[in-house]
Design goal:
single chain, 80 residues, alpha+beta, Alpha-Beta Plaits, four-stranded antiparallel beta sheet, 2 helices, globular, binds iron/sulfur cluster
Length: 80
């Protein structure tokens, strides 16, 4: 199982995560931020707004890892 986290503060709404991993990532164009589908709000250590989701399936982990890899501001973390 891995934990996927999305910190909204530095998300620039570029859409790259949703382009490579639409199963888990969507865009909120009104907010100009990405949305981690079914993500639960979690209190981040350093303040700000963060969502997290637990993922177990290998393919789903890979999908989220790709999203993390293409994120220009590195606000997506895949924690093993
Ligand atoms: S790739 Fe990163 S910066 Fe771009 S929308 Fe997704 S989370 Fe935000």
């Amino acid at each position: 199982m891995v934990k996927v986290t999305h910190s909204l503060d530095n998300c620039i709404g570029c859409g790259s995560c949703a382009a490579v991993c639409p199963k888990f990532w969507d865009m909120d164009y009104e907010k100009g931020k990405a949305v981690l589908k079914d993500g639960k709000k979690s209190p981040p250590a350093g303040g700000g707004e963060e969502f997290e989701l637990e993922v177990t399936n290998e393919e789903d982990i890979k999908c989220n890892q790709e999203a993390a890899d293409v994120c220009p501001t590195q606000v997506i973390k895949v924690i093993k």
